[in-house]
Amino acid sequence: MELLQKQRDFFATQQTKDIKFRKKALKKLQNEIISREDEIAAAIYKDFKKPKFETLAFETQFVLAELKHVLRNIDLWARPERKSTALINWPSSDWIYKEPYGAVLIIAPWNYPFHLAFAPLIGAIAAGNTAVIKPSEVTPNTAKIISEIVTAVFTAEHVTVVEGGVEESQKLLAQQWDYIFFTGGTRVGKIVYESAAKHLTPVTLELGGKNPCIVDETASIALAAKRIVWGKFINAGQTCLASDYILVHKSVKEKLIESLKKSITKGYGDNMESSPDFARTVNQGHYKKLKAMLEGEEIIFGGKFNDEDNYLSPTLVNEPKLDSKLMQGEIFGPILPVIAYETEADIHKHIMHYGKPLATYIFSNNKKFQKKIVNTYSFGGGAINDSVIQISNKKLPFGGVGASGIGAYHGKTSFDIFSHRKSIIKKANWMDAPLRYPPYKIPMNLVKKVKHLF
Ligand code: NAD
C-alpha cells in the first residue's frame, strides 16, 4: 500500500524522533481542535443527536486535557531512564531508551467517535510514530471532520485518515503495521488480533463487555441511583463503560427501582423524547437489535420508541433470564436490567456467566464487601459508589482484561504503549573481568553463587 510505504519512508528520515517536532505537531492539533470545537459538536449531533454538553465534556475537552497533560510531560517521559547496574556487569551504566515502533494503525468505533480516534493518536504521535486513523463509517459526519482536522494539522506521511467501513478496515489490516490500536467490539477485536498475529504486530485492543453494577443493602440508594442513571444514559447507553445490568440486594430492590425512575425523570423530564440531553440510537440496525432485546421482557419503566428517529427511551427491565436476548451479550443502549440477588453466590453466578468485563461498579457502604468484589473478580477497572468516572483520571490506565481487551492507555500509559522500551547497557572499557570467558576456570561451587551478582 502506497500510503503505508510513504509513512515508512517518512519515519526513516528520523524526523519524528525529535521531541520538538512531536510537540509542534501536538500543539497544532490542540489549536485546530479548540478552533473547531463547535463544528465538531455539530458533526456528532448530526450523526446521532449527541447532546452538545456530552460532546464537549466527553469528546473534545477530554482530548484537549490529554493533549495538555502530554505536552506538559513529554520531555520527561521521552528521556532515557537510568537503572542501577547489575553487579555482574560492573562497571557499566544501564538505560531504557523509548523508541517509537514506526507505523501505527488506529481503528476507531462510532460511540465516542472523536475521542476514540484522537486519544490514541496523541499517544502514538507523542511517542514518535506515524499513524493512520480509520474512523467508524457509522458516524460519517464525524469521520469527515476527523479527516479535515488531520489534513489541516499533519502531512499525510505523518498522519492520515482512511475513511470507510469493513472493506477498507480489512485492507488496512492486511498490511504489516508496527503497532495496531483497536477500539470496538470483542468479535471484531478477534479479527484484528488474528490479522496482527500474521505479522507479529503488537496490539492494544480496547473492547466491550457486560458490566455488572452491584448495589448491596448498605448502599446510599438515592445517590447510587443518581450516579448509575447518569453513567448509564449518557450517550443513550452507548458507552463501553456503562453499567450493563444491576444486581441489587433483594431487600432494597424496590427502593432502588423507585429512585432510578425518579433520577431518570429528573434528568430527562416526562417527555424524554423532546429532551435535548438525550442522544439517539446510532442507526436503524442497532435500534432494531435493541428493540428485539425487549421482546418478552417485563418493562418496568420507559420502553417508548420512535422508529422515525431511532429513539428508544431510558428503559428499566425487571428480572430478565440469563438466557434471554437481553442478557446474552453487551446491551449497548438505554436498557437497564434490574436483577435481585439474595446471597453472594447469586452475584458470583451472574458475573462468572460472562467473560471478564471492562468495568464493574459496587454501590455499598460496607468496606468488606467492596474489597471482596474488587479482589475476587477480574475486570478492566471500575468504581466504588460511582460509575464510569474511572476514565477521567489520566493517571489511571484505561483498558480491559480477557474478553474486554488487551493493554491500556491514557496519559503516560499511552506514551508507554506506543514506545518500545529498548534496554542498553553502556559498558566501560577500563576493566574486563576474565571470569566469564572460556576456558572456564572458576570452581563450580563459586559459579553456583553467581546469582547474587545479577
Ligand atoms: P465494531 O467492532 O463494530 O467496529 C469498530 C471498528 O472496526 C470500526 O471502525 C469498523 O469499521 C471496524 N470493523 C467492523 N467490522 C470489521 C471487520 N469485520 N473487520 C475489520 N474491521 C471492522 O464496534 P462499534 O460498533 O463501532 O463500537 C461498539 C463497540 O465498541 C462496543 O462493543 C463497545 O463496548 C466497544 N467500545 C469499547 C471501548 C473501549 O475503550 N474499551 C470504547 C468504545 C467502544
Characterization of the model:
The chain is of the alpha/beta class and 454 residues long. The protein folds into two domains: 2-207 and 402-421, Aldehyde Dehydrogenase, Chain A, domain 1 (3-Layer(aba) Sandwich); 212-393, Aldehyde Dehydrogenase, Chain A, domain 2 (3-Layer(aba) Sandwich). The chain has helices at residues 2-12, 19-35, 37-48, 52-78, 115-126, 140-153, 166-173, 186-198, 221-233, 253-268, 284-293, 344-353, 367-376, 411-417, 444-447; strands spanning 81-83, 92-100, 103-107, 130-134, 159-161, 179-183, 203-206, 212-215, 245-249, 298-301, 305-306, 311-312, 315-318, 335-341, 359-363, 381-384, 405-406, 419-427. The strands form four sheets. A seven-stranded mixed beta sheet has the order 10-13-14-9-8-15-16. The chain has a six-stranded mixed beta sheet with strand order 5-4-3-6-7-17, sandwiched between helices. It has a three-stranded antiparallel beta sheet with strand order 1-2-18. The longest helix has 27 residues, at 52-78. The mean pLDDT is 97. Nicotinamide-adenine-dinucleotide binds next to helix 7 and helix 8.
Describe the structure concisely for a colleague:
This protein is an alpha/beta fold and 454 residues long. Helices cover 41% and strands 18% of the residues.
